[in-house]
Amino acid sequence: MSEIQRKGQNEYEEKVLALNGMDKEILDQVRFDEISETRPISLKPVKDQVIVITGASSGIGLATARIAAKKGAKVVLAARNEDALKDLVNELERKGHSAVYVKADVGREEDVKKIAETAIKQFGRFDTWVNNAGVTIFGYAMEVSIDDMKRLFDTNYWGVVYGSRVAVNHFQEIGVPGALINVGSLFGDRGTLIQSTYAPSKFAVHGWTESLRMELEKEKVPVSVTLIHPGRIDTPYNEHARSYFDKQPVHKGMVYPPEAVAEAILFAAEHPKRNIYIGSQARALKLIGTNLPRLTDKLMERYFPQTQYANRPSNRPEESNLFKAGYGMHERGTNIGWKRNSSFYVKATKYPVITGFLVVGLSALAWVAAKRKK
After folding, report:
1. How far is 204 from 208, CA to CA, in rounded Å?
2. Which partner from 6, 19, 131, 135 sits 20 to 30 angstroms from 194, CA to CA?
3. Which of 157, 162, 198, 345 is catalytic?
4. Element containing residue 138 per DSSP (H, E)
5. Mind listing the pLDDT tens digit for each residue in 77-96?
6. Is the pTM of the predicted complex or chain greater than 0.90?
7. What is the distance of C-alpha 57 from the center of its chain?
8. pLDDT tens digit string along 134-164?
9. Nearest Cα to 112, choosing from 169, 179, 49, 159?
10. Is 157 assigned a catalytic role?
């Protein structure tokens, strides 16, 4: 072990012992390499994989399906909008790609099992399972009906639980390492106003993902479990939302393309990663919210509400996708603001060594420039 590694392990031990009063003999049994960011699990290249994607008829799921198929993956596409799924499969097959669809409501466990059964029947297996399907509600916590809240949790939380269990069982049965990728949210790291029903559903997803990851690692089950933390993404998410407001839900400000999330998902399908943040805003909100919670409260109370709706009439409640399928085959939404072409944060996650050299280089240039000014 190098001096740097030894120093890192000693610091880690001191923190854990201070917080938990643990006996050092217990901690001595933990190797430093066991507390690294990722587990040493070997995953197939995307081109050799069968990838299951829920919520595949629009937004992030649609972008991921198209990019995965273009890379050579066989894709199993699930959503409630059967017409959109048929169009997507036809589109991919015309381009020479392998795809199959399953009409499914992920809030129903039997539907999720049907997705897995279709993948196995069509392709003999699946290698990566992406829990992406999601819905949202724009409305204050005390105004949203309990029925609407329960329905949202059926999709956002229970859909992830059902998908995770099916995926892990499959990987254990075939005895081959696989990837489970759960799509969370920046609002799963920090609560928010107006989407106060959506945020706790994503908190639940984050908690489920972390807990499941630890249990699988403890039992040495070879499954890579990744949590994706998207920032504000330019998808039809806002148009599909159940709105309790007179004005239309929308993302205002800096928004990232769904392709950036797809890039992160497909990177995690090949490389075991614990977390991937889409956009610096997602990472920044977590850090500020954790370290300066009261200040974050006041800033969000002051500035967030007006960034979540547009100056036009809201869609009618029956147009939302909360209880039925929304319109499909659209990757982008009607959001307003600075629409980014990619996420530099995702690029940095994919290429940490290059990023490190760039940071060092820029720091050196800044130091030289500062010295010259003196």
Report:
1. 6
2. 131
3. 198
4. strand 137-138
5. 999 999 999 999 999 999 99
6. no
7. 17
8. 999 999 999 999 999 999 999 999 999 999 9
9. 159
10. no
